[in-house]
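Q: Fold this one first, please.
A: Sequence and structure below.
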Amino acid sequence: MGLRVLAVDDSKTMRDMVSFTLRNAGHEVIEAHDGQHAISVLGGGAVDLIITDVNMPNMDGLTLIRNLRSNPSYRSTPILVLTTEADGAKKNEGREAGATGWIVKPFSPEKLLQVVAKVCH
């Protein structure tokens, strides 16, 4: 049984890569182009996993994570950060915001699926 995953990234190319990888592995993917869009797309509905970029217009990934973590519906939903940011301070900020894991772009499909399997066991 596949997972229901929300992929949030302002880059359509990146959303397409993530979606393609996850759909090929049997998962359902919902896409959003920034944090605000992600919140409206979710509408309080359940997902098994959220994958978000950090640097996006309107609402960045860390603000999105804080928002989701303050909502009881998403308090325990795994949230992966997929970003070009490899900086330790940013990772700590992500952890403090409530991120479950961190994947640095560019990523391999295998790596993405390994991390997804690990956080959604």
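Q: Good. Now the second chain.
A: Here it is, same layout.
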Amino acid sequence: MTDRAPARRPNQLFRNLNAKIASIPMILTALVIFLGGTVWTIVYSFTNSKLLPRMKWVGIDQYERLWAAPRWIISIENLAIFGILSLIFSMVIGFVLAALMDQKIRFENTFRTIFLYPFALSFIVTGLVWQWILNPDFGVQSVVRSLGWASFTFNPLYTSSIVIYGILIAALWQGTGLVLCLMLAGLRGIDEDIWKAARVDGIPMWKTYLFVVIPMMRPVFITTLVIIASGIVKVYDLVVAQTSGGPGIASEVPAKYVYDYMFQAQNLGQGFAASTMMLITVSIIIIPWAYLEFGGKKRG
């Protein structure tokens, strides 16, 4: 037996050799472009790069300027409001719709397609559509006033204090369908015997969902949470299409801040510093998810 064991190890190395060879370009791309670009961005965030990158070290000056800029602070506040509300509402609405859809209703495929259709649109298209819908001259406000409510006011995209909520409405309209499909797939994976046992024991349906079904769907919730959160951090198209950051800078977000400083203000150092902070935010989301998904499995 001891003579055969070493002979098997080389065979393990050459198993699925074609697949391993085919994956080499993607591995090199990930290492050189993604990892290399990330390191390059972090390094140059400590320089005074303007129109072109240059190795003139300034330490953490770019980060001090970043956190002293009112525009960046507003973008972080907007991202926090948009992110928290988007996570809560998309998860709750998506799960409730999935629970209703799981009742074997008629025309389920039609409803699922209708709910998922907005996700197929680009954020630019979604932003423009909702810009028209929320426009006070010919959108919701105009329609309601034409019905007799002359004092009705609903123009979130033109009011600084609530503009981020107007963007949130468009984001929920587009992203909730994906959450619905993910949750519905998780519900369909629940064993039918569990539902039968709950009905036999006389457990109310809401308690079955709350104390049995939702804990069993933990991996689905975590995956959905990561997908939504990663999209929230890099939100850009929706803001540009709806408000371009206005009124004033009331709807600024970090991704737009990075783009403006790198390509319009021609201040690469400041743009690199802001993008590095965004990278840290994404890492805060991804690392706990990876630990929960893979670390727990290894311990098990």
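Q: Anything worth noting on the second one?
A: Residues 47 and 56 are 5 Å apart (CA to CA).
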